[in-house]
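Support request, please re-run this one:
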Amino acid sequence: MKKENKSVIIWLLSGCVLLFLMVVVGGITRLTNSGLSMTDWHLVTDTFPPLTEAKWQTAFDEYKKFPEYQKINIHNDFQLSDYKFIYFWEWFHRFIGRIIGLVFFVPFVYFLAKKKLDTETIKKCIVLLAMGGFQGFLGWFMVRSGLIDNPDVSHFRLSLHLTFAFITFAYTLWVALDLIYPERNINKILPLRNIARYALVALLIQIIYGGFVAGLNAGLIHNHWPLMSDGEFIHESVFIEQSSLIKNLIEGKSGVQFVHRTFAYAVVAVILFLFFKSKKYTLTSTQSNGINTLVVFVFIQFLLGVFTLLYSVPLALGLIHQIMAFFLLSAMTFTLHRLSK
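Re-run finished. Output below.
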């Protein structure tokens, strides 16, 4: 790591921490059904929550015009105090998004003016800024789907929003790693790099289906393991919920859960394959540590998934499972970087 890059690295890693925090708060927002509490988006005027009871009541009255209140919460003795709780988590989620925008843009302009960024890093940072802006759009695109007729967001849009947040985090970490490890003539092992790439693709597919499960509340059914029910590895509802098998596997609760719980074995298998294959090569300490960490994290994540399912997705377990996915992607990004450069 070059000394002149230290401040830039700290900036990028701070962005990673904020992205991690935003996904954690996003998970709480989803698990507490808070995502539809703010029914509009204003870049400036929504920066802080209502500061008087009158303004809270105005926001609550606006919320009452939308399907979530009219079809669900109106029957649950839903009061202003309840609304304040769900409003907080959605507001906090958006607030962190604003902070991330400032943390990325303002230092970027400063480093640009001080000529602390080389041409390659400038290009990567412009990509990061574009990704951040697009992520903000995806957030509103997701929320909008639950404000029209159906009082729930589209699981496709939720998964897209979640997965793109993970990808943005991974790319930010990759740019930071490029500066932390500027050397290029290290032990690049192409067979292991290619396996790591397949592992990354498998992990992203699993994250996408994790979003599907969250969006459909598919973790609340078939709360058995390793079988979906007593004596059935594949529950019959996997095939009959929707009009076709493809729809069952991307729109049906049973089908989506089946793919997510079964594909977890594939993710474990490809990471174990990478681990055992790596024993045939002489690795650097960072390469070896990355692969070993990857194996530990994937087994922890697998067990968390099992217990989250068995206990019907309690808030704490559901959140920890999502956090561990972040750690797993971090280890995957680090390992692939060390095997690629």
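DSSP finds twelve helices and no strands in the chain. Residues 80-113 form the longest helix (34 residues).
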